[in-house]
Design a protein that fits this description.
alpha+beta; 9 helices; Glutaredoxin; globular; 222 residues; disordered N terminus; two-stranded antiparallel ribbon
């Protein structure tokens, strides 16, 4: 997990069996995996004060991330299919972590793209440009130039980026990151109460197992 040290930030199968070779061979079914045993203070942490959710009545799951974080990038192939299968009573929200410098540029750009309702493939393209192609995208203009290659109008992006509405969302994202008491990205929050990450959970798949169990816990408490 990438630690968020402010000083640094501010400076910059199971195997499928072989085809049955004996017609009378019994079919063995793999036993379902036992649910992970969760313990507060180990796999997840309870926040000192619950943070209000954005859609009351739904169970909120938040992922805090940064385009410049390789762990966030490598988490994408695991979390995206999971998000697509979430039940209707769960509201998933991505929030960019912003701690100054290029973090703020990237975070405000993400909020801008969300405001413009661009397709998720653009979000993926930004991640790949930074993580695979070595692009910095360290200014709004650099970001706009890159997005132009993805079919996003440069002027429309910059106008939205500098809009009052986007700046208000940036301020709210920073407030939420502080309220969630995050110390690294990617971090996840369930229903404004529980915080966990790849390190505390034990890896990408385990992180989503923790999320599933905490979602179930909140559902049962309704």
């Amino acid at each position: 997990m990438r630690n968020l040290m402010l000083s640094a930030v501010l400076a910059s199968t199971s195997l499928f069996g072989l085809a049955a070779q004996a017609a009378d061979a019994p079919v063995l079914l793999e036993a379902p995996k036992a649910a992970m045993s969760l313990e507060a203070g180990k796999q997840y942490f309870e926040l000192n004060a619950a943070v209000p959710v954005s859609k009351p009545g739904k169970i909120e799951v938040v992922e805090l991330f940064w385009y410049g974080c390789p762990h966030c990038f490598h988490f994408e192939p695991t979390i995206n299919p999971w998000v697509e299968k979430l039940p209707a009573d769960v509201n998933f929200v991505r929030i960019p972590a912003m701690f100054g410098g290029v973090w703020d540029i990237h975070g405000q750009a993400f909020i801008t793209l969300e405001t413009m309702q661009v397709e998720h493939k653009v979000h993926n393209a930004v991640f790949e440009a930074i993580q695979k192609d070595g692009k910095k995208l360290a200014t709004p203009e650099e970001f706009a130039d890159f997005l132009a290659t993805q079919g996003i109008d440069k002027d429309a992006f910059l106008n939205t980026y500098n809009s009052f509405g986007v700046k208000g969302q940036v301020a709210n994202a920073k407030r939420l990151a502080m309220a969630y008491q995050i110390s690294g990205v990617p971090s996840m929050i369930v229903n404004g109460k529980y915080r966990f990450d790849l390190g505390s959970s034990g890896g990408p798949e385990q992180t989503l197992q923790v999320a599933d169990q905490l979602i179930a816990k909140e559902r049962a408490a309704k």
